[in-house]
């Protein structure tokens, strides 16, 4: 069913990621270019429950393309998951005459946008905003490239001290269910081991490798662990217990979610933002917009919520070959 879209809202939801501001800017300016009115919703789905809706114009999004975070703020909204919460959202949308909503977020936010479309017939579009790169229908998500670069830069610095003091380092990166950042930075930094939630890890083999490496004169060892696969302090403690070598650990944490977006994240955000408006104008609702092989790719929201399959085995094998 196609309805005439005159006024849209945009919101950011779930964990923030660098490039979300660039996506908002693109949605707003593309909508205005096409003669639509645009509202901004503060604090994700909570803002639609609690009536936090603001006017957006051309100037509202000036000078934000290079800024990390999201000026609309973001939140996790437990209330939105139940029917009463969603009813309040629909009421707020009606109050403002909003015809469609563009949701920038990760898999949870996509599930919410899917609900709004399937259960409440609200035209929605999802844009992939998460550092975890765990959505289907897009090669990359907005924020993941910046997060990987931030983590990589930190690991390079840790490697300097690790090498100088001949220590083992365990670095914990973000990713509760997704090993994407861990795999990328492990390969990119020349780490010796990577531990991810998607794959069972052979700790005994690692202890043996560390001992053999040491016997051959290897003086530092970098282990990257995704937060959902293990805790850095526990891994470091055990490594020292079993091998007898000194270790330290670092939890990179939320530093990975901040900072100016890389060129790649800004460009992705800008392209999908404009494509979201195109979809709504064409009457394509309940869709997620991504970029695959440098082309805009539109899939059903329900389909996009599932995890991307990355080449985990290839990455892990290569890391071992190059150790
Ligand atoms: P992300 O979008 O980064 O994955 P979350 O998983 O925290 O972050 O989801 C963001 C918000 O999306 C949640 O706080 C909730 O309001 C909504 N949401 C998450 N999962 C669902 C679901 N299964 N159904 C409806 N809404 C959901
Ligand atoms: O989904 C993005 C993400 O950064 C995950 O990688 C991480 O597990 C989670 O959010 C952290 O959430 P919070 O900011 O609530 O600690």
Low-confidence stretches: none
What structural class should be given to the helix and strand makeup?
Answer: alpha/beta
The coarse silhouette is: elongated
Which percent bin holds the helix content? 40-55%
Beta-strand share of residues = 15-25%
* Small molecules (ligands, ions, cofactors) in the structure: adenosine-5'-diphosphate, 6-O-phosphono-beta-D-fructofuranose
Give Rg in angstroms. Answer: 22 Å
Quick one: biggest sheet? Answer: 8 strands, mixed
Mean pLDDT: 96
Helix and strand element order: EHEHEHEHEEHEHEHEHEHEEHH
Distance between the termini: 56 Å
How many E strands? 12
Enumerate how many helices there are, as a single number. 11
Structure, described:
With 323 residues, the chain is of the alpha/beta class. The chain is built from 11 helices and 12 strands. The chain has helices at 20-33, 44-49, 83-96, 107-120, 144-165, 180-189, 203-215, 232-243, 263-282, 301-304, 312-321, and strands spanning 7-12, 37-41, 53-55, 100-105, 124-130, 142-143, 168-173, 193-195, 221-226, 247-251, 287-292, 295-300. Strands 1, 2, 3, 4, 5, 6, 11 and 12 form an 8-stranded mixed sheet that branches. The longest helix has 22 residues, at 144-165. The termini are far apart. Residues 13-15, 45, 76-77, 80-81, 105-109, 111-112, 115, 130 line the site of adenosine-5'-diphosphate (ADP).
């Amino acid at each position: 069913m196609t309805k005439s879209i005159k006024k849209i809202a945009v919101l950011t939801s779930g964990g923030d990621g660098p490039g979300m501001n660039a996506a908002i800017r693109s949605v707003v300016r593309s909508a205005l270019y096409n003669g639509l009115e645009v509202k901004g919703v503060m604090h994700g789905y909570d803002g639609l429950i609690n009536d936090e809706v603001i006017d957006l114009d051309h100037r509202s999004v000036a000078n934000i393309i290079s800024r990390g975070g999201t000026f609309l703020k973001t939140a996790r909204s437990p209330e939105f998951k139940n029917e009463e919460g969603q009813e309040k959202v629909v009421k707020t949308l009606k109050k403002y005459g909003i015809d469609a909503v563009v949701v920038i977020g990760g898999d949870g936010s996509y599930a919410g946008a899917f609900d709004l479309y399937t259960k409440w017939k609200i035209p929605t579009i999802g844009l992939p905003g998460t550092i975890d790169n765990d959505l289907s229908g897009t090669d990359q998500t907005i924020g993941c490239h910046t997060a990987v670069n931030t983590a990589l830069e930190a690991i390079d610095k840790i490697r300097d001290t690790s090498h100088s003091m001949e220590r083992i380092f365990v670095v914990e990166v973000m990713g509760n269910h997704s090993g994407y950042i861990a795999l990328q930075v492990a390969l990119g930094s020349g780490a010796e081991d990577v531990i991810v939630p998607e794959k069972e890890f052979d700790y005994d083999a690692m202890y043996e490798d560390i001992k053999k490496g040491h016997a051959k004169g290897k003086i530092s060892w970098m282990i990257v662990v995704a937060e959902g696969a293990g805790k850095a302090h526990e891994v470091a403690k055990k490594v020292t217990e079993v091998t007898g070598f000194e270790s330290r650990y670092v939890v990179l944490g939320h530093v990975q979610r901040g900072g100016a977006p890389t060129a790649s994240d800004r460009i992705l955000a800008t392209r999908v933002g404009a494509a979201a408006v195109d979809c709504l104008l064409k009457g394509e609702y309940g869709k997620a917009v991504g970029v695959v092989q440098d082309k805009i790719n539109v899939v059903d929201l329900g389909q996009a919520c599932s995890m991307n399959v990355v080449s985990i085995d290839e990455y892990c094998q290569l890391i071992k070959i190059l150790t």
